[in-house]
Amino acid sequence: MSRSLRWVLFVLCLFALVAAIAAQARGGGSHIYLPVVAKPSPYWAFAYDLNDSDTFVSLEATSDGGFIAAGESHAFGEEKDAWVVKLNVDGTIAWEKIFAGVGSQFFNSVQEAPDGAFFLTGGHHSENTQTVALWVVKLDEQGNVIWQKSYGEFANNGVIQVTDDGGLLLTSATFGPDSRVLKLNSNGEIIWQQELSGAGSDYVIAIYETADNGYILGGHTSSLFGPGFTDALVMKLNQDGSLAWQRTYGSAGVDLISAMQMTDTGGVILVGIIDSIGSTQGELWVIKLNNMGVLEWQKSYGGPAADNGYSVQQTADGGYVVAGVTFSYGLFPSNPTDGDVWLLKLDPNGNVIWQKTYGGFGGDEVDAAYSIRVTREGNFILAGDTESFGTGIGRRNAWVLKLDQMGDIPNCGIIGTSTAVPVTPPVNILNGTLTVNISTSVVEDTNIIPQNASSQIISVCDGVGQAVR
Hints:
This protein is mainly β and 469 residues long. The protein folds into 2 domains: 1-36; 44-461, TolB, C-terminal domain (Neuraminidase, 6 Propeller), CATH 2.120.10.30. 5% of the residues lie in helices and 48% in strands. The longest helix is centred in the N-terminal third of the chain and has 23 residues, at 3-25. The radius of gyration is 26 Å and the shape is globular.
């Protein structure tokens, strides 16, 4: 075949192809089927396996559309190692770091700074004092250390909050056990610090800056009635850290607060567990207060077994979304050792709009969510840990779930429903008895060198196909 003939045939074929495409565009003629590639779903659930005991306890949506999660792993043996993972919007890992040293290191809280850097707080083993010290680390956008410092004795519940001036508010419990509140500048230097103490155990688990330049704190205390009787605690501090007011809220049993958020009206919403009948089970508890600590409403949610609330966020409609773990509902509600993630969407008055569970198919495994955030699109992102979707029996891996506004992931078989009915339990409201004194924590530079880590990602639900075991 001559070159000119081949060229004519090529042109004729090209015209035929163009004509067919045009006919298809007009809705008639022959159809040309091109290969279709399924787009990744914006909703998913992934587990992250670094070792056999991993967990995320804090998560934030970041300004680049992704997420950052912090917690702990046992990457190098029996001791805890502090772990931070930067995630892309699709749940893949942008970078992750592990902080391992002598003794235990762990992160409790992470916040993004106005400059795009990240502040993390937790505890680390101090070689100077041979105790666990309160620890703050600032990382740049790529996970490199800008600075890290310790601030004296630390027991648990270290929480960090970035302030409008670029500084930090920091709370932690000591081995007293009392609580400390520190105001830091952006370089980690102490502006002021206070110790909150009473006759019993006092834990502050959250702090926010208020519109009048003061601070509101939430937690729980046994200082009012002694051991075995713990109540929710809310305190207001002035700009200099002095006490403005304090109140307690509780039943006749052990009532604990896990998280608090300031609402768009200047009040606060708290979540935890209430033991109003004096049993050892407890129910998920939500409390709404105005900016003066006056109770607007409080409700408990639960079933015959233990149900705990760990995180709460206000939603765009003025309601709230609450995350935790339920042993009353889920796929194996009759098994008191099988727990599932529990998510409740509430209206502004605490009434249930919808409620869902997320868990595995085993009969003796716990899947939990310790942190929930609302994304810029109004969807939900949760972080915690899972025993159902680990890489082996008895292994606990961190996991993150990206859900739509109804709490769903398309084609995902791990999602169930629950039927909890809210109840208003009897509670007493009293003035608190804690005293506020100047603390004397000493700042020390630390030098725990982070290492790059490489987690295995386990697809639990990818939003396209069914869940995998």
